[in-house]
Amino acid sequence: MRQQRSHVYCAAILVLGLAAVSHGAFAQDSGRLLATAGVNQVEGAGGGGLTPWALITGYGSRDAVGGNVHGTYVGLNDFGLGSLGAAAGFYDRFELSYAHEWFDTGSAGGRLGLGDGYQFHLDVAGAKLRLFGNAVYDQDSWLPQIAVGVQAKAADRHAVLKAVGAASPDGLDFYIAATKLLLAESLLLNATVRATKANQFGLLGFGGDRHNVYSAQFEGSAAYLLSRRFALGAEVRTKPDNLGFAREGTAYDAFAAYFLSKNVSATLAFVSLGPIARQGIQTGPYFSLQVGF
Amino acid sequence: MRPSIRIAAAVLFISCRTAFAADPLFTDLGGEPGIKRISSNALDLYFSDPRLAKDFDNINRRFLEPRFAAYLCHIAGGPCVYKGHTMKQSHQELAITETRFNFVVEDLERAMDRAGVPYHVQTRLLARLAPLERDIVTR
How confident is the model at residue A253, as a pLDDT? Predict the structure, then answer.
């Protein structure tokens, strides 16, 4: 109940914030170039589908703010994973994001003794700061755009998480991301290193009976721009393997993102999240829609 | 001695010529006629884009167009001599924002679309122009 209330508050604050922005409390200009806002990753930050990038979300220039909402659904073999969230970028420097994730165990829930359709939930509040570099303009240097970020995560189902060996239902992830657009080659490259204790992004809590320390995980994205509107790419994201009850592995995706305008983009991907809860490697289609400015 | 000098001169001449013709970007943009078309399309858009009215209202198109074309030709590695001010000098008093810089980029992209320049040629030109943001955006 406490959990439910906190994510309602969080969503309300972000919606009010976006409303204030769109009513002129902050300047909005959609002044950046198409596709340079990226999309929203599953935890809500601006980035690819799985990984946060150093780019600040939204199309606000350095003199304005930008923002967006996203909805994402991944249909896995035995599970469903959804994410709804909102994000705002301030002056191409600072980003705030919030996402609510739900993980539907479907009939696997019954096999695991939880009951068919049992759901886990995760709330993620994120902040990101661009330190230096400009991924788009610095075409005469190899220096990427660099940003640091934090994601504060809180999972529900505390008793179940404890039973599977998780050390805590909440945790903090810290990351540093480097993003470079190689415009002449029409390539966008990103590398992110994340310090985390999260099990399955945090849906199964943080730390575990096997390991209960932070580990550095690697996340990479590469995208090829077929046109100003259309990008094809792939991502990889390694994850900790903290729980004795079920192994966890690396996630991958191959994606196509279409930028209809600065206001609407859609991403279609094929994702593998690795093995989840002893049900084998989980793969399936990923759909995401982003609306913003 | 003399033939060898002549050969050296010939080699030098040929290598200079090939150095000029070597930049494939200039060729891929359609050479000088292609760049003239892009410039003309771009200025059509700049002078009619309401988002840029403030920037182009007081500018003489007949003055700007040949200089704009010569600059693009020079940046693309073509055999043109650009004799105007540097981009820093010519924009320093104009208090240009990042947003207006990007609107100019968007219009240039549209101008290249209209001139039939393929996207992957456009990005090669834009990659050479992108660092100008540091010189042009002063606000």
Answer: 98
Cα angle A246-A248-A254, degrees, rounded to a multiple of 5: 140
Q: Does B138 touch chain A (CB under 8 A)?
A: no
CA distance A195 to chain B (A): 33
CB contact under 8 A, B102 and A64: no
Look-up: residue for tokens 């990226």? A38
Looking at residue A30, the DSSP 8-state letter turns out to be -
Nearest in space to A108 (alpha carbons), one of A250, A245, A277, A285: A277
Predicted pLDDT of residue B69: 97
- Walk me through the domains of chain B, giving residue ranges and CATH numbers: 23-136 (1.10.490.10)
Q: What is the ipTM of this complex?
A: 0.90
Q: CATH code at A82? A: 2.40.160.40
Please list the ranges in chain B whose pLDDT falls under 50.
Answer: 1, 10-18
Instruction: Find, in chain B, the residue whose alpha carbon is nearest to that of A91.
Output: B98
Nearest-neighbour CA in chain A from B76: distance (Å)? 12
Kindly list the residues from chain B whose CB atom is less than 8 angstroms away from the CB atom of residue A136. 130
pTM for the predicted model, two decimal places: 0.90
- Taking only the tens place, the pLDDT of each residue in A248-263 is 999 999 999 999 999 9
User: What is the number of structural domains in chain A?
Assistant: 1
First-residue to last-residue Cα distance in chain A:
33
